[in-house]
Amino acid sequence: xxxxxxxxxxxxxxxxxxxxxxxxxxxxxxxxxxxxxxxxxxxxxxxxxxxxxxxxxxxxxxxxx
Length: 65
Description:
Helices cover 60% and strands 0% of the residues. It has 2 helices and no strands. It has helices at 13-26, 40-64.
């Protein structure tokens, strides 16, 4: 019968994960909440989507007309 458990003395990855989670849970919550993002990128995204819809509608109108 083969020994499929690997060499002796290796660390258990699950143990490291549990220690990390315990560290995160015990860390003091000193971070400030993130500032509200500006509406600049959102406005640009909306303008881009509207422009794309207009272009697609114009191409479809020209193709069918």
